[in-house]
Amino acid sequence: MLISALQRRVAAHGPQPFITYYQGDTRIELSAITFANWVDKTANLIADLGFDDGEPIDVALAESHPGHWVSLVWIAAAWQRGCPVNAGVTGADFLVVGPGDDRRAEFTVACSLHPLGLGFPTPPENAVDYRDVFTQPDLHDVALEGEAYEWDGAPAPAVEGRDSRVLLRDPRPGFDVVAEALVSPALGLGSTVVCVGVSDEQAARIAADERVNNG
User: Mean pLDDT throughout 52-81?
Assistant: First the structure.
């Protein structure tokens, strides 16, 4: 569902903004093409680590950093590999964590969340540094069984596509932010601006500068 929609979006309106992420004064914009490329590389990293398609992945980033563009990439990449996504840590063999998170599984990838995608200054202990994703090919590879669309042990809710540009400020963990930030614009022609840790004045300026449709 999501992956197929994202590929259609790339083909039809690839260069247009898809996800714009603000944290403080840092701004990162990803077009549909760029976002899909990160998803492809991440999906290929999952396979390269030897993890089986279709097995669940604990994306702890979705709990600790909801709405972060890296969290959204990991959710999409897991689904591309046919892997159900758990938000948080449930004991799955594959775990994705952020900086300062020392939890580990049989397969663990640690993400520095550096704005430029750089890795940790010191390699994370008992984990793969997400910067290794840069060595992966750009090949679009989907699990033989097809993409997944499962969240926390159940089919993810249906989402309506949207064509508008909306702002999400300090999103909270849960599927709602995934639906609004990622799934809904992919199903339509919309885009999302996510702001974390900004003041009311900054949020108002960002909304005006980014020409969001929800104020």
Answer: 98
